[in-house]
Design brief:
It is a single chain. The chain has a single domain, classed as SPOUT methyltransferase, trefoil knot domain (Alpha/beta knot). The chain has five helices and seven strands. α1 packs parallel to α5. It starts with a strand and ends in an 18-residue tail after the last helix.
């Protein structure tokens, strides 16, 4: 079983960098659907200080259609959108026999409206007030993936770390 954080045409490198760090920390796959609003070559990554990029399993997709061809079980595809009726924490992600894909839209426009209209049963939202347009994309990804991992009993993740120095004794 693998969890996937899927970014549709991300524009802001720092959001993608933060989500990549979350993917590395949670052993999730980072799926990036092109076009991207930035470069991910070694030179750009080093300049951005993304020293953990080598620990991230990144899969690039040329289009939304190409990505959808890789989704082996569409019943476990979740579209994160503020326009969804179902709250992300009300969904059961506990099935560890299959992959789960959590898709997030472009920072400026979200996921394509025709795609959302064709898949309303897959849409989930993070509750928030009407006082803000949207939450930060990286924060949304962290909220959703950690809810899924909590339901999966944090399978494969370290629950306790030892302090590297003996100062806490």
């Amino acid at each position: 079983m693998t969890n996937h954080l899927v970014l549709y045409e991300p524009l802001i490198p720092s959001n993608t960098g933060n989500i990549a760090r979350t993917a590395a920390a949670t052993d999730s796959v980072l799926d990036l659907i092109k076009p991207l609003g930035f470069e991910t070559d070694d030179k750009h990554l080093k300049r951005a200080g993304l020293d953990y990029w080598a620990s991230v399993r990144v899969v690039y997709h040329d289009s939304l259609d190409d990505f959808m061809k890789t989704v082996t079980d569409p019943t476990h595809l979740y579209l994160v959108s503020k326009f969804a009726e179902q709250t992300y924490s009300d969904v059961d992600y506990s099935d560890t026999t299959c992959d789960h894909w959590f898709m997030f839209g472009k920072e400026t426009t979200g996921l394509p409206e025709p795609f959302m209209r064709a898949n309303p049963e897959k849409a989930v939202r993070i509750p928030m007030t009407d006082d803000v347009r949207a939450l930060n994309l990286a924060n949304c990804a962290a909220l959703v993936i950690y809810e899924a991992l909590r339901q999966q009993d944090f399978a494969g993740l370290e629950r306790v770390h030892t302090y590297p120095h003996d100062k806490l004794k």
